[in-house]
Amino acid sequence: MTLEKFFTSNYYFLITGSLFNSKYVAGDGKTYNTLYNGNYISNFLGGKEFHMGKNKQDIFGVNARLLVKGGNRLTPILLEESREEGHTVYDRDKWLDEKARDYFRLDAGISYRHNKTAYSWIVSIDIQNLTNRKNIYQSFYNEETGKIENLYLQGIIPIFNFRIEFGL
C-alpha cells in the first residue's frame, strides 16, 4: 500500500507498507523462511523546502525517513555444542525459525542551496540511523566469552556534503 504526495507547494511525503511471507522450498523438500522474512515493512518519508535570501532564490531544506520492518530471521544456536566445538553450531532442524527484534531506523537531513546566475552551491548534512539503534543482523557464538552474542548493523552515520553545480 502506498500513499504519496508529489513535490508541490515545497513539500512531499511518501508512506508505504507491505505485508509478506517469504519462504522457499529447499532440496530436502522442506519449506523454510528466507533470511529477510520479517513479515512486514513500512516507510515514512517527507521533506520541505523554504525559499530564503535575496529574491527568495536560496533554498533551505529538511527531510526525514523512518523505516520500520520485521527483524531478520535467525537460526537458533546450540550453545553446548558450540562450546564443545569452539565455533557457532546452528540447530539445522530449526533453520531461520527465530526472528530478531524489529528493525527501526530514522534518517534525517538538512540542506542549504545558494543559487547564482551561472552556478549554485549546496551544503548538506544527512544523518543515517539518527537514534543509533542497534539493529540485529545475526547471532553467533563468541568463543572468547562462551556466550551467544549479536552482530549489529551500522550505527549512526553522519554524511557531510558540499557540491557546486555549474549552469550551461
Quick recap of the structure?
The chain is mostly beta strands and 168 residues long.
List strands and helices in order, with pairings.
Elements lengths: L1 E7 L2 E9 L3 E3 L5 E3 L6 E13 L5 E12 L3 E2 L4 H7 L12 E2 L3 E13 L3 E10 L7 E7 L4 E6 L4 E10 L2
Antiparallel strand pairs: 1-2, 2-5, 3-4, 5-6, 6-9, 7-8, 9-10, 10-13, 11-12
Q: Provide mean pLDDT, rounded.
A: 96
Number of folding domains?
1
Radius of gyration: 23 Å
Which stretches are low in confidence, meaning pLDDT under 50 for 5 or more residues running? none
- In the sheet with the most strands, the strands line up as 1-2-5-6-9-10-13
Number of helices: 1
Helix/strand class: mainly beta
Distance between the termini: 41 Å
- The number of E-state strands comes to 13
Largest sheet geometry = 7 strands, antiparallel
**Morphology:** elongated
SSE order: EEEEEEEHEEEEEE
Q: How much of the polypeptide forms β-strand, as a percent range?
A: over 45%
Give helix % range: under 10%
What does this structure look like?
It contains one helix and 13 strands; from the N terminus they run βββββββαββββββ. It has one helix at residues 79-85; strands at 2-8, 11-19, 23-25, 31-33, 40-52, 58-69, 73-74, 98-99, 103-115, 119-128, 136-142, 147-152, 157-166. It is 4% helix and 58% strand. It is elongated and about 70 Å long. The two termini are 41 Å apart. It has one domain. Strands 1-2-5-6-9-10-13 form a seven-stranded antiparallel β-sheet, with no helix packed on it. It has a two-stranded antiparallel ribbon with strand order 3-4. It has a two-stranded antiparallel sheet with strand order 7-8. The chain is mainly β and 168 residues long. Strand 9 (103-115) and strand 10 form a beta hairpin.
